[in-house]
Amino acid sequence: MRAVVQRVSEASARVAGETIAQIGGGVLVLLSVGVDDDASDGETMADKLAGLRIFPDAHGRMNETLESVHGAILLVSQFTLHGDVRRGRRPSFIAAAKEPLAVTLFDATGRRLESLGFAVRYGRFGAEMEVALVNVGPVTILVDTKRAF
To answer: Does the pTM exceed 0.85?
Structure first.
């Protein structure tokens, strides 16, 4: 699994002009499931997201977690994170999982985060979305359960 995690003061997802999810402070997580991912990747990703120390402490250092700042999560599926452009200019998405695996692991990751006590809002899997955010910092972190980066 791959994720782009952005620290936000607010974020939302819209489909066909309708806001389907929104959060205040917390993180926007763009999540992609790979063809070689399984349930353990979902657990690893959720645990990593829960423990990321990307929020400022009293001294302005990134020492606080999402839990300690009572932040929310907007979880949005984005298969394009598995796009490969090493050859040519058009991305290849053969490493991105398709349904039903992608849906199953995406949902399991969100449920794991919820079980850890986080308020999770969801984009609509497979939909053309408009995702808006106010990135604070800016702070953007890449997470890969296969440790490719």
So the answer is: yes
